[in-house]
Design brief:
Layout lengths: L34 E7 L6 E4 L2 E7 L4 E6 L7 E9 L2 E9 L6 E4 L10 H18 L19 E4 L4 E4 L2 E2 L6 E4 L5 E3 L4 E9 L3 E9 L2 E11 L6 E2 L4 E5 L9 E8 L2 E3 L8
Parallel strand pairs: 7-9
Antiparallel strand pairs: 1-4, 2-3, 2-5, 3-4, 5-6, 8-11, 9-10, 11-18, 12-17, 13-14, 13-16, 14-15, 15-17, 15-18, 18-19
Length: about 270
C-alpha cells in the first residue's frame, strides 16, 4: 500500500536535482525513474516504438527521429532496449540503465496512518482500477513541447524517488515532486493538453490528469479546488486548480507527477534549465 505524501521540510540527504531540460528536450537520464532519449535515425515517416508492449513517444522529422522512453523506478540496472517499427521492418535499439541511489527516510508514525481499514482498502482498490485506465491513455497527437515550467511557485518539499519506511515497513518510492505552497495558490498547466480525469481519491485527494499527447501525461494532486472538467482543452498557463491538503497529507502542497509510456518519471528532468 502506498502511503500519501507529506508536506515537510526537505529531508536530510535528499538527492540534488538532476539536470534540467535543454534545447526543448527533457534531460537524458538513463536511470530508474529517468528518461532515455534514443536516436532512431532518419525515416520518411514517424517510426513506431515500443517498450515491451507499451507505445513510446517519438518526436522529430525525416532527418532524425527520437524516442523518449520513461524508465520505471523498478527497472533492473543493465541492458535494456526498445523495439522500433518502420516501413522497412522491425529492429531493436539498445540502451543501458545505470544505477541511482535515491534517498531513504525512516519515520515512526501512528499505526492507523500506515494500516488501512477494510473499508479504506476497498476504496483504494476501486480507485486503482479506474486510475489504471486513465494512465493507459495514448492519444495520437504530438505534445506541444517537452519542457515543463513548474505548475506552481514554491519550495520543493519532497523529491522524486524518495523511499519512506514507516514503522519498519517500506513503502513505494515517491513517484512525483512535492511543491510546498499555501492553500489556494493557483496551479497553472505547464503545457497545452486535454483534461482526461478529475476526482477525489483516497491517497491523492482532489486530482487532475492532463493528456499532452502520445502517452505524455501529467498529474496534480491534493487540490483544494478543481477549476477544469474532463474534456476541457487547456493551454499553457491556464489555471486548472488550486493548492490544497486533500487526501493523505500533513500540509498544503502540490504533488506533481509526469508520465511517459505508463511510467512515472522525475518531473525535474522536464524543468527549464
Amino acid at each position: 500500500m502506498v502511503l500519501g505524501c507529506a508536506a515537510a521540510m526537505l529531508a536530510p540527504g535528499l538527492q540534488a536535482a538532476p539536470s534540467h531540460a535543454s534545447d526543448g528536450w527533457p534531460a537524458d537520464s538513463r536511470v530508474p525513474g529517468g528518461v532515455a532519449r534514443l536516436s532512431l535515425g532518419p525515416a520518411a515517416s514517424r517510426p513506431q516504438a515500443f517498450s515491451g508492449d507499451m507505445p513510446v513517444l517519438v518526436l522529430g522529422d525525416a532527418i532524425e527521429w527520437t524516442a523518449l522512453v520513461g524508465i520505471p523506478l523498478s527497472a533492473v540496472v543493465g541492458p535494456a532496449s526498445i523495439r522500433v517499427q518502420t516501413a522497412e521492418g522491425s529492429r531493436t535499439v539498445p540502451y543501458t540503465v545505470r544505477d541511482k541511489k535515491y534517498s531513504e527516510q525512516r519515520l515512526k508514525v501512528a499505526p492507523k496512518t500506515v494500516d488501512l481499514s477494510a473499508e479504506d482498502n476497498a476504496r483504494y482498490e476501486r480507485e486503482s482500477a479506474h486510475l489504471k485506465q486513465v494512465m493507459a491513455t495514448f492519444s495520437n497527437v504530438s505534445p506541444a513541447g517537452m519542457v515543463l515550467p513548474a505548475p506552481v511557485p514554491g519550495r520543493r518539499s519532497s523529491s522524486f524517488g524518495l523511499r519512506r519506511v514507516f514503522n519498519g515497513q517500506s513503502r513505494n518510492p515517491h513517484s512525483g515532486m512535492d511543491i510546498a505552497a499555501p492553500t489556494g495558490t493557483p496551479i497553472k498547466a505547464p503545457l497545452a493538453g486535454k483534461v482526461i480525469d478529475t476526482g477525489d481519491y483516497f491517497f491523492n485527494g482532489n486530482t487532475v490528469w492532463l493528456d499532452h499527447g502520445s502517452g505524455f501525461l501529467t498529474m496534480y494532486c491534493h487540490l483544494s479546488k478543481i477549476d477544469c472538467a474532463v474534456g476541457d482543452a487547456v493551454q499553457a498557463g491556464d489555471v486548472i486548480a488550486k493548492v490544497g491538503a486533500t487526501g493523505r497529507v500533513t500540509g498544503p502542497h502540490l504533488h506533481w507527477g509526469v508520465m511517459l509510456n505508463r511510467t512515472m518519471v522525475d518531473p525535474a528532468l522536464f524543468l527549464p534549465g
